[in-house]
Design goal:
By secondary structure, this protein is an alpha/beta fold. The chain contains 14 helices and 20 strands.
């Protein structure tokens, strides 16, 4: 889908569909919707007398968020159809509503077989957003909303796809802002779709080697530094948690390091000019390409969903892609440990004691608590960058799903209120919900071990808190205090969407990508 910004009145566009909107309860369409309405009046030129007004008067269109109506134009305007989408109540409207409405309308156009589609920027007029914000939300929503995972379908590939989406404005003073917003929206929307594709990709095709290769190719394309540790380097670096989990699988582990250094506008990386010494943001993602549970094997029912146990890693990799493409003016590092968790004669077992990269020893209670084992080494590794702040993201515990509800919110634990505050602010902007949970030191009592320093599972009660406290032990410096501001996002409840609605598409959600891009942008 090619995206362009044009200076034109929407009712004059020669396209397969034009997209306009209405707030809930509006009696008389205004702005672009009003202009289209007037153009669709049999008594030409009389406001409030056109096809959109008719829909409202008959009570056929209320303006509820994501409500749709298709109007055929009968040659009154050059476009074949008008797609009218509801924005919901004006006092509840925000960028997320604009993204959803845009996604709904553009997907409808795609499903109708439209090839050339023109839209207004939702939210700019009475919506109260700047033209730039409205353009970004509109394009971001559109790009996310037409996502499909067709890689493994043998037939019907791409039979319906929009060729060109045009963002139109009649106001030439807005053009530059719209172009900037549309560009950001396209980059970010595509990054979300990248994360979705990685999560949707079957685990026989996506495993540590191929996952790391994907990251490397992406890095080359967008200009990120990329370093990949193979199983030998992981072992030389004594990343014991990663090695232990990987042992059971024929697929060797990988550890991917991505780095964004802001490029000067003439295209050269000016890392040498100082950025390299700037304290980076470090993003860490759990990359378990398939989680069988290992020797502590999971029930077979629903196990296929554990191909998505690398959704945190996908979010980090895709966010790094967007951060590079946007050339955000800040140093950002992505750390991604990748393993497959399998039972076998070589697998780590309950009862094993594992020496981690930090030197702490961990008694294995459950081989299914593997995520924290690989994250622990990555969090320890992060110390060398003297980070400004670290965020890890992981499909870590079923307990977090129990606590907050499937698809409702991710949990966030933080060692630092300011750092948590930055994340919560970003979350409010992107609509990716995170709910702060307490990092009480008492959680440490549940993971005391008889044989090792700590154990990798604290049992049933407070399972999300004990997992967070486990990770907390690996951000500690020599003095036992956090070596950097840290936040941990447990996204186990958010990795998949089970319904297609607005910009959400059934399957891998792409959760966390926009959150990280916004965090990097806002600091
Ligand atoms: N990947 C799972 C957590 C998970 C569960 C993610 C459901 C998405 C949906 C994780 O590795 C796991 O198995 N956690 C265990 C931890 C326990 C053994 C301490 C869990 O939550 O049961
Ligand atoms: Mn597990
Ligand atoms: Zn897991």
């Amino acid at each position: 889908m090619k995206i362009s910004v044009l200076n034109r009145q929407i009712q004059a566009a020669t396209v397969d569909a034009i997209i306009v909107n209405l707030f809930d309860g509006v009696k008389m369409p205004e702005g672009a919707s009003g202009a289209v309405d007037t153009a669709l009046a049999s008594t030409d030129g009389v406001p409030g007398n056109g096809a959109i007004s008719r829909l409202i008067q008959l009570g056929d269109f209320k303006g509820k968020l994501n409500e749709l109506s298709v109007i055929y134009t009968n040659g009154l305007i050059p476009a074949t159809r008008v797609i009218l989408v509801g924005l919901g109540k004006q006092n509840e409207f925000d960028a997320d509503a604009a993204r959803h409405a845009s996604a709904t309308a553009v997907r409808k156009a795609r499903d109708l077989g439209c090839k050339r589609v023109a839209t207004i920027a939702h939210g700019a007029g009475i919506g109260g957003m700047t033209p730039r914000e409205a353009a970004q939300a509109t394009v971001e929503g559109a790009v996310m909303g037409v996502y499909q995972h067709l890689e493994n379908k043998s037939q019907g590939k791409d039979n319906k796809a929009i060729d060109e989406l045009m963002l139109l404005t009649a106001d030439t003073k807005q053009t530059d802002q719209l172009i900037a917003g549309a560009n950001a929206g396209e980059i970010i929307g595509n990054a979300v779709n990248t994360a979705r594709t990685l999560a949707n990709r079957p685990p026989n095709l996506l495993y540590p080697i191929t996952f790391a290769e994907f990251a490397q190719q992406m890095a080359l394309r967008v200009g990120l530094r990329c370093e990949i540790f193979d199983e030998h380097e992981i072992s030389e670096r004594k990343m014991g948690g990663i090695m232990a989990v990987a042992k059971g699988s024929a697929q060797p582990p990988r550890f991917v390091v991505l780095e964004h250094l802001p490029k000067s506008t003439n295209g050269t990386s000016n890392g040498a000019a100082g950025h390299e010494s700037v304290q980076p943001i470090v993003l860490v993602g759990k990359g378990v390409t398939f989680d069988t549970g290992g020797i502590s094997i999971k029930p077979s029912e629903g196990m296929q969903a554990m191909k998505g146990d690398m959704a945190g890693a996908a979010a980090v990799i895709a966010a790094m892609q967007a951060i590079a493409e946007l050339n955000l003016p800040r140093r950002v590092i992505g750390l991604v440990p990748m393993v497959e968790n399998m039972p076998s004669d070589r697998a780590y077992r309950p009862g094993d004691v594992v020496t981690m990269m930090s030197g702490l020893t961990v008694e294995i209670i459950s081989t299914d608590a593997e995520g924290r084992m690989i994250l622990a080494d990555a969090l320890h590794y992060a110390k060398r960058f003297i980070p400004r702040g670290v965020v890890d993201i992981a499909t870590l515990t079923g307990a977090c799903v129990i606590a907050l509800g499937e698809g409702v919110a991710a949990g966030v634990f933080a060692s630092d209120d300011n750092w948590a505050g930055s994340l919560l602010k970003s979350s409010a902007v992107t609509g990716e919900r995170i709910w702060r949970m307490p990092l009480y030191k008492e959680y440490g009592n549940s993971i005391k071990s008889d044989t090792g320093d700590i154990k990798n599972s604290g049992g049933r009660y407070g399972g999300v808190g004990t997992s967070a406290w486990f990770l907390r032990r690996f951000i500690e410096g020599e003095d036992g205090e956090p070596a950097y501001p840290w936040a941990h996002i447990d996204m186990a409840a958010m990795d998949t969407d089970d319904k297609t609605e607005g910009y959400r598409i059934r399957g891998g959600s792409g959760y966390g990508v926009r959150l990280f891009v916004e965090l990097a942008r806002s600091l």
